[in-house]
Amino acid sequence: MSNDTATATTAQPGTAPEPPPHGLGVSLPSAEARAKTEGTFPYAADLWAEGLLWAAVLRSPHPHARILSVDTTHAREMPGVRAVITHEDVPGTALLGRGRADRPVFASDVVRHHGEAIAAVAADHPDTARMAAAAVIVEYEILDPVTDPEQAFEAEPLHPDGNLIRHIPLRHGDPDAAGDIVVEGLYRIGRQDPAPIGAEAGLAVPRPDGGVELYVASTDPHTDRDTAAACYGLEPERVKVVVTGVPGATADREDQGFQLPLGLLALKTGCPVKLTATREESFLGHVHRHPTLLRYRHHADAEGRLIKVEAQILLDAGAYADTSSEALAAAVSFACGPYVVPNAFIEGWAVRTNNPPSGHVRGEGAMQVCAAYEAQMDKLAKKLGVDPADLRLRNVLATGDVLPTGQTVTCPAPVAELLQAVQEHPLPALPKDTPEDEWLLPGGPEGAGEPGAVRRGVGYALGMVHMLGAEGTDEVSTATVKVHDGIATVLCAAVETGQGFTTLARQIVQETLGIDEVHVASVDTDQPPAGPSARGRHTWVSGGAVERAAKMVRTQLLQPLAHKFGMSTELLQITDGKITSYDGVLSTTVAEAMDGKELWATAQCRPHPTEPLDGAGQGDAFVGLAFCAIRAVVDVDIELGSVRVVELALAQDVGRILNPAQLTARIEAGVTQGIGAALTENLRTARGLVRHPDLTGYSLPTALDAPDIRIVKLVEERDVVAPFGAKAVSAVPVVTSPAAVASAVRAATGRPVNRLPIRPQAAVVTTTQ
């Protein structure tokens, strides 16, 4: 990891200890850090209720089949079984979906992917529930699955809405423009799973008013509540979602397909019902990163300046639409990367297949195209005979340039500065050819080949992502700040998913009000909505709402003092719990000024609106952008094809550093997730059947796989339209690092490397090459 170190100060004997630092810009630790470290933090899987029943779900063993009959007789007659439900037991809307409601709660006539839910059981013991689910007899007529997204255009419709979810034709500039140098490529990106630390779990508790409460690790509780209420045929006020501890989220953390059967079973039995998914169920049920097929053609002049980019992008959405429309918009809009491209012609499609469902995973759309356009830049540099980093510098985007969507980049875009920073950072030393250093070789101490077969490569990549929702999404969040007896409380339905929002909210209130003790209330749907935890929303939108509410409380606190001393509140400041005036006449503590009063305020934050892309892929679709540059250094065993990532040097524009330790952790985690996509992570399927849906068959990078991550530069150029000027930090390293690793493997081997994750055979160099 990075070499950043923290320093501690110790009070001298006879002196009072310094108060702990607080406010924005310091590394305030998470309030839950100790409980999570000690294993006492309550997650959904830890919940319990009196009279608890256990749930299990029957899932389809086929990727595509017609359901001829469902017989639940044997399951219902088993001792201990309290309820068995199918599509016939859904009293309200039977469809769900994040972006588009097209996925049934339970399959009724057709199964469209392996693992689709067909029935659910509640019983007095988890083993009984699982056996009862297995006792449900389903008669299928097996159908040929459509698993190749290219075949989906001509195949019979897999869904009443058809196979085409969205088509975006982007047209920018002169279609007849051409360059002196042309390079082409075909690229494939695999199916990355979010692989949450804890599998999905939840508890549903019936209410006396005929409603239900859902205790789940939701990342968007109000949307989940509305979907559940529609499914249950209830008013939204009679359904409450209480967010439990979220054990990490790099996607839509809690799949609604797990939530909805819980509430149905609780309503049917009148008892609390708990469901804890197995790892296999988790792999089969939730969404994954879109597998993508990309065809590219880059045109450049003799100096290496880009003239035109042509591309075709095909996203495999799997069985249902989910957020595929949004992912496609990002892929098409960023298909040229953070480069100036005067002419761009991109065709993008998202289609249904019988593969596992795809949806929101960190950096969706942008990661896939980054791997492709950076491969094209490497090809172009090789054909021109120029340094790959220098070629990129000739074409980088800057503030004031225009994206292929026609939108002008108004936010800070220090892309050249980022690339130069990683380019100038010293390279790591070469490994010593001694036995004690064999573990440094690709493959580890037992799997490495001869040291003489190892080649070192250096590669570069530039990435970009958008922040917040896009294409007209109404981004809004509401927060309340209350102060009483020297303690501040923040109420905001922004879910803490590991991105550090609760810590940030404490820091904002500390900074604004000078109050050290700040508590952030747990989240449920009795609070006003704050929107989903994705794309850095809560740092911007919810953090902005907290700041506005805290400033309103500050005004309430200072106005009586300002009036008493005949001055405006702007002439008063709060520092370290003390209120002072500009001239030193007034000096008092916040506690004295409060005088036992309770102050509170509620505020909203809503960024400036965006617009949908038009029929030519043009429009101001994005609120803000973030950029990253990474230089990867890898060692490749060219005989075995094994790859070791030695170092990743990273530079990123972050707007403003709000919590240094938290920011560093987010960047390092994002880089590591990207390395997984580059080298190991691919949920494999065979004709639509998921192979090895477990953490043995799906290889996640561990701490031993993490390279030395050097954060060489963080550019703090504040975005004036964002609260605090800060930018989201975790998505763009995920987007950029796979492309950088692939670039370095290309440099080491001379092979094209056109597929992620990189297969060993793609890194093998034969004597004829």
TrEMBL record:
Biased composition (Low complexity): 1-15
Residue ranges of the region described as Disordered: 1-32
Organism: Streptomyces dioscori
GO MF term set: iron ion binding; oxidoreductase activity
Family annotation (InterPro entries): Ald_Oxase/Xan_DH_a/b, Ald_Oxase/Xan_DH_a/b_sf, Ald_Oxase/xanthine_DH-like, AldOxase/xan_DH_MoCoBD1, AldOxase/xan_DH_MoCoBD2, AldOxase/xan_DH_Mopterin-bd_sf
Domain Aldehyde oxidase/xanthine dehydrogenase a/b hammerhead: 38-144
Name of the protein in question: Oxidoreductase
SMART domains: Ald_Xan_dh_C
